[in-house]
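thread from #wetlab-drylab

HS: before we spend reagent money on co-crystallization trials with nicotinamide-adenine-dinucleotide, can we at least see a predicted complex? here's what I'd submit
DV: go for it
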Amino acid sequence: MATDLQVVAVRRISSVNPATGEVLRELESASVSEVQAAVARAEAAQTAWCDLGISKRIAVLREFQCRLHEKKIEIAEAITREAGKPVAEALTTEVLVVLDAARFLIDNAYRLLRDEPLPHGNLVTKLKRGLLVREPHGVVGIISPWNYPFSIPATEALAALVAGNAVVLKPSEFTSLVALDLESLLHAAGVPGNVFQVVVGDGATGAALIHSHINKLVFTGSVGTGKRIAAAAAERLLPVVLELGGKDPMLVLDDADVDVASSAAVWGAFVNAGQTCLSVERCYVHRSLYEPFLEACTEKTKKLIVTHGLDHNAEVGPLIHQRQLTIFEEHVEDAKARGSRVLAGGSRYPEMGANFYHPTVLADVTHEMRIMREETFGPVLPVAAFEDDDEAVKLANDSEFGLAASVWTRDRARGERMARRIQAGTVMVNDVVSCFGISEAPHGGMKSSGMGRTHGRFGLEEMVRLKYMDTDLMPGMKKVWWYEYGSNFARQMEGFLDMQFARRLGERLRGTLRAAGVLKRKQL
Ligand code: NAD
């Protein structure tokens, strides 16, 4: 572990515009001691932040929301410069998502975090008052990816902060500047400097954060990194939320609207150039609609405007970097070599820039191809046919991932029946991806897609530890289950059990008589 951490010391990272290759800024990775110092400062500042009380913290969130709204274009353009996506997407899938997450917390955090009475059902413990108390963990570490560099860390941080935690964020090394913008906005809104801090750096900086004194970690990233993080966290029993990769299936049933479903498939596959954890990564279409669906998708894909995200006509931007492009290309080439048909795209777009690739539609893909099994994370829509609903469910579930899925049908009840059969954290009927923007909805996966939840009520619950408080209302009374037992106690207890749980009334009455003796028992 020590060697792992020592590597951090003097590395520099560059923030690069993926559309142009322009270096936006050089930054120095936070060293192990800088990470530890940031966490120590957060720890020291957290108590006062917690003591401020929830109403004042909600007021800070409201101020943050106003400031973000005022700077919406500035922030959206900063996201586009560093992550490549069209400004329209930066506004809808990043800024809007965060504004609405703030709205959810402003409206609901007080109600969801306040103490909750827990009435007792057990007769033995009726004379006690139970209370569920939600306490902040202390310092929450957040490690985030580059694909949604603003909405992912911001939604997680807002929930952690409103619950009274301090936060130390380690953003992706590819999108440090957006994280620093988030930091400025939060500080300007009234979050104290040490209560929200950003430590920039790569994986080694993230590792240093895990080994620091944080009390909880929320990680969003790939399955491989997630597994390494889970192993490191297990060593010190650090509680973690893991939001990992996906291979989301889209099932187009035989009664679906082909025009609507094909538009959804094209948007769901190409939004953020396919670099979305909830992307449509696999599309299965009923045989009867297969050819018209492919035709519609191909026609719509060919109309997409692929250009720099700052161009206001942009619909699909670049991939984040060459490494991602290479993985993506390998998947497409593997699918081609194994017999899939390329109906649109299928090649790089060097005239636009080194990281651009034409949005690609592939037909006749199979589960033998990497493109249907591994996370591809690029602008491709692979489509296969199925014969009936059972086969569609089987194909959808034939994956190590379980993040989200969608079912397309004109019959809502049928769609919901199918949704119950799909192994995924979220299943949408007649929409894709937008669940991430529903602030009330829990976000998270099953199988290799991770554990725990962010967003909504369940995401907020992850930011607190639950304390059960129990107050006895008869402080002058010894409890009947204490010593001394004496020779009759077992029989009296047997009667007490009969009184409550025996099948027949007579048995219950006899039990009551036997149990009554317990009240006269001599006790230590
Ligand atoms: P990644 O796993 O490479 O990196 C994620 C973060 O982890 C980065 O900040 C990185 O610096 C850090 N990191 C890397 N190695 C580390 C280590 N050993 N210890 C601690 N931190 C380490 O992922 P990425 O390429 O940035 O993001 C893309 C992946 O994220 C995709 O798999 C995508 O599906 C997934 N993702 C999931 C969700 C979700 O909500 N489930 C959302 C967005 C992205």
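DV: The two ends are 53 Å apart (CA to CA).
HS: ok that's useful, forwarding to the group
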